[in-house]
Description:
- By secondary structure, this protein is α/β, with parallel strands linked by helices.
- Helices cover 42% and strands 19% of the residues.
- The protein has helices at residues 16-27, 39-45, 60-65, 82-94, 107-116, 124-136; strands spanning 8-12, 31-36, 51-54, 73-76, 99-103, 120-122.
- Helix 4 (82-94) packs parallel to helix 5 (107-116).
- It is globular and about 50 Å long.
- Adenosine-5'-triphosphate (ATP) is lined by residues 12-18, 35-38, 41, 56-58, 77-81, 84.
Amino acid sequence: KPVTHSDSVVVIGLGRFGGAVAESLMRLGHEVLAIDTNAELVQKWADRLTHVVQADATDSDAMRQLGLNHIEHAVVSIGSDIEASVLTVLALEELGVPDIWAKATGTRHGLILERTGAHHVVHPEAAMGERVAHLVTGKMMDFL
Ligand code: ATP
C-alpha cells in the first residue's frame, strides 16, 4: 500500500461508520489502530488494519497503556451508547489527543461531545441526507 502520511489515527468503534473510516484511512496510507469491545469485530478487522485491540475505550488507564497519549488523531465512532461515546471523548481529551473527531446520533449528543472536548463532531445521517438532496437536484456541489 502506498504510504503518503506517517500520521497515525485511532478509530474507536468498528461498526459500519467506524469500519468505513478505518478502511478508508488504510487505503489513504495511514497507520490505523482500532479499538472495540466486541471480540468478533476485533477478529473480523484484525488483518485489515495496522493494529486492532479489544478494549473498553472509556477506561482512560487502559487507553494510556495503549499509547493513546502519543496519538495525533482519534475518531470516536460509538453511536447508540451515548454514555460510552461521551466517556471515550473525555478520556481522549484527558490524554491530550490534539485532534478528536466524534460521531453524534443527534443535535444534543453532538453538543455534549463538543463540550466534552471533541474538536470535530460529525452527524453522518444529516450530512448524507443533505448530500443526497444535492445529488437529486443535480447540483453535485461535492464534486466541484
Ligand atoms: P454503526 O456505525 O454501525 O451505525 P452504531 O452507531 O450503532 O454503529 P454502536 O453499535 O453503538 O454504533 O457502536 C459502534 C461500535 O462501538 C460497536 O462495534 C461497539 O462494540 C463499539 N463500542 C461501544 N462501546 C465501546 C467502548 N466502550 N469501547 C470500545 N468500543 C465500544
